Automatic annotation (TrEMBL):
Domain Glycosyl-hydrolase 97 catalytic: residue ranges: 298-475
The entry's keywords: Signal
Residue ranges of every copy of the Glycosyl-hydrolase 97 N-terminal domain listed in the record: 30-279
Signal peptide residue numbers: 1-21
Name recorded for this polypeptide: Alpha-glucosidase
Taxonomic lineage from the root: Bacteria, Pseudomonadati, Pseudomonadota, Gammaproteobacteria, Pseudomonadales
Glycosyl-hydrolase 97 C-terminal oligomerisation domain boundaries: 570-670
Length: 673
């Protein structure tokens, strides 16, 4: 006979099934300010997380776990063995960066899970909630069933609560990250690179999905999978053989990051990606890691005046490099890059197997004389390794190549990977490239060399751990305004990239074009901005190495160059004052080595008046504001060079009105009086 209790239970079970289903382990985690809530549910079918911001869902229950080759999915039938919580409130000092002190304040939830049946595999998920977003990563400990294995798929989902506005570039394209950004509904994304930036105008929320600490794993793209078209799934960029990740336990995946802010402008003040990276592993690097500005034999190739190939049009000649050194020595420029300096650039170097030799100068360029001359003038040459995507060819020479530069007193190298496939088959974002680039950074450190990489895998904040990893391209940079056979960039490009690509880390965009007339070889290309806008980019685009990209003769006797001379590349603080993606941006940064502040404001193709509140300046202090602004008739289309330089005394109570012309900008140095 059934007891009355059992009968009641049977009745309830059959009517309200959920209440009597298997116990659901639910765990919650709050950000320090309580505005962000992470909820993790251990459902029988699988582990799920969701995120609320200000009590509203932004990510609905989303799947976690892995598909593993030759084994069942590692995702469900889990026992929550243990849940540890930790509170962290600390500060740390980066070697260089957007600010001298970074706060790392977060709450952590560390879940230890084990399969109840079957292979009884174990894994962990660690969540961290900060005031500026959430990071989570998987940890797979050593165990018999998982020693060396292949990840066929990472099941992580981002089931967005709404069809947000998205700013994105498509993944799996030949030009990698070198595209202009699309602005569409989230539901229009097929597969996107990260950072992917989303805004919800009705909700007053801005979200960016990216990753932190990408080491020995594949880069993550985001693919639209669900029927509602607003759920994105991690899509790890595979090797040529289809494997996503060759793994070995113990394994820690990169952090999946979801930055969350009240506005797109606020996203730019987030340190979440850096906070999720490990501290400096290189120790004292002060003898060679030096933020600064550089020039280079570069733009003249992109605008067709000169060539990388040896011969008549050769850019890299001893004489030409001396001219750059002479100009740089008179200004606050620390290095001169020489592209085409080495053997192997003949003809169409990008369309054949690489022929580069990394320790032999081309005929016509005397590297010993050039390095000596540079050092006699108090600066250094910057090395260049173009690989044409030939990784094996590069790795064969790598040790020798960096040793060679060290012998020459070179402390900074730009490397690049032009070409759609590495070694003819691998992707620029997969584990192959992640491993290779790690080797580059570590080898460079061994020879006391800073790294500036083009066409490499995206930034995930590894500069904190490896502070010789200064900057990278990973963006459709200035070069597209020079030599691109299709069109150059649009005027709104530079007011999009700080909110998207910029969230991943420093960007070697190479601003500072002063001469807008280079039609001789490039009748269809333009720099889509005014001169004042070019100056403002030194503040709005963050990079510890900033190029003054134009030719020395184009800077000669131009008063506006004083701003490039003055502007620092290392900051004690950075503040985004205002901005709307694709429209305008106002940034203020304080010099790390003085009490000066700098401001950069830029607009898209539309003129606009922007009031700016100077309350970031010190109380009770007066400043001389040196203002570089668009002249009344400036316009990127037909009068880009028209600039006015004026000076005025201001304090934190002054409200300045910035008058930006189409494609224009304002750059200001505030000198404390
Ligand atoms: C592409 C890089 O982005 C560019 O800066 C460089 O000049 C060329 N490759 C040649 O190496
Ligand atoms: Ca490039």
């Amino acid at each position: 006979m059934f007891s009355r209790h059992k009968l009641l239970a049977f009745f309830l079970l059959s009517t309200t099934f959920d209440a009597f289903a298997e116990p659901v382990d639910q765990q919650q985690l709050l950000s320090p300010d309580g505005r962000i809530r992470v909820i993790v549910n251990n459902q029988p079918a699988g582990l799920e997380y969701s995120i609320n911001f200000n009590d509203k869902a932004i990510i609905k229950p989303s799947r976690l776990g892995f598909a593993i080759k030759g084994q069942p999915d590692l995702a469900g039938d889990l026992e929550l063995v243990k849940a540890d919580k930790e509170t962290v409130r600390k500060q740390w000092q980066p070697v260089w960066g957007e600010r001298a002190t970074v706060s790392d304040e977060h709450n952590e939830l560390h879940l230890y899970l084990a399969e109840k049946t079957g292979l009884k595999r174990k894994f962990e998920v660690v969540f961290r909630a900060f005031d500026d977003g959430v990071g989570f990563r998987y940890v797979i400990p050593e165990q018999e069933q998982l020693d060396t294995f292949s990840i066929e798929d990472e099941l992580t989902e981002f089931a967005f609560a709404r069809n947000y506005h998205a700013w994105w570039i498509p993944a799996y394209r030949d030009q990698d990250y070198e595209y202009q950004y699309l602005n569409s509904a989230l539901s229009s994304i097929d597969v996107a690179h990260t950072p992917l930036t989303l805004t919800g105008v009705e909700d007053n929320v801005a979200i960016a999905v990216h990753e932190a600490a990408l080491i020995d794993y594949a880069g993550m793209t985001l693919r639209n999978t669900a029927e509602n078209h607003i759920t994105l799934k991690a899509d790890l960029v595979p090797w040529a053989d289809g494997t996503r990740v060759y793994a070995q336990t113990p394994l820690e995946t990169p952090w999946r990051t979801i930055q969350i802010a009240d506005s797109a402008a606020d996203l730019l003040n987030s340190d979440l990606v850096l906070n999720l990276n490990e501290p400096n592993k290189l120790g004292d690097v002060s003898s060679y890691v030096k933020p600064g500005k550089y020039m280079g034999v570069w733009w003249e190739m992109h605008i067709g005046n000169k060539s990388w190939s040896p011969g008549e049009d050769q850019g890299a000649t001893t004489e030409r490099v001396r001219q750059y050194i002479d100009f740089a020595a008179k200004h606050d420029i620390d290095g001169v890059l020489v592209e085409g300096w080495n053997k192997g650039w003949e003809g169409e170097w990008w369309s054949r197997k690489p022929t580069f030799v990394f320790d032999e100068p081309v005929v016509g360029f005397d590297i010993d004389a050039a390095t000596e001359y540079a050092q006699s003038k108090g600066l250094r040459l910057i090395g260049h390794h173009e690989t044409a995507a030939g990784v094996a060819h590069y790795e064969e020479q790598m040790e020798r190549a960096f040793a060679y530069y060290k012998k020459q007193g070179i402390q900074s190298v730009k490397m690049g990977y032009v070409g759609p496939r590495l070694d003819g088959k691998e992707s620029h974002q997969g584990q192959f490239m992640v491993r290779h680039f790690q080797k580059v950074v570590e080898t460079a450190a061994k020879y006391d060399i800073m790294v500036n990489a083009h066409e490499t895998v995206k930034d995930t904040g590894l500069r904190r751990t490896y502070p010789n990893l200064m900057t990278r391209e990973g963006v459709r940079g200035m070069e597209y305004n020079g030599g691109s056979p299709d069109t150059g960039n649009l005027p709104n490009h530079t007011v999009i990239i700080p909110f998207t690509r910029g969230l991943s880390g420093p960007t070697d965009f190479t601003p500072g074009i002063f001469n807008f007339d280079y039609k001789k070889h490039r009748p269809n290309n333009r720099v889509p901005s005014t001169l004042a806008n070019q100056l403002a980019l030194y503040v709005t685009i963050y990079s510890p190495l900033q190029m003054a990209a134009d030719l020395p003769e184009n800077y000669e006797s131009k008063p506006a160059f004083k701003f490039i001379d003055d502007v620092p590349t290392d900051w004690s603080d950075s503040k985004t004052l205002a901005g709307e993606i694709g429209q305008y941006l106002i940034m203020a940064r304080q010099d790390k080595h003085s009490s000066d502040w700098y401001l950069g404001a830029i607009t898209n193709e539309e003129a606009r008046m922007l009031p700016v509140d100077l309350s970031f300046l010190e109380p009770a202090a007066q400043y001389r504001a040196e203002i570089y602004r668009d002249a009344a008739n400036a316009d990127w289309r037909d009068n880009p060079e028209a600039i006015e330089i004026v000076s005025q005394t201001v304090s934190r109570d002054t409200v300045l009105s910035l008058d930006l012309k189409p494609g224009g900008g304002t750059a200001i140095r505030f000198i404390k009086l």
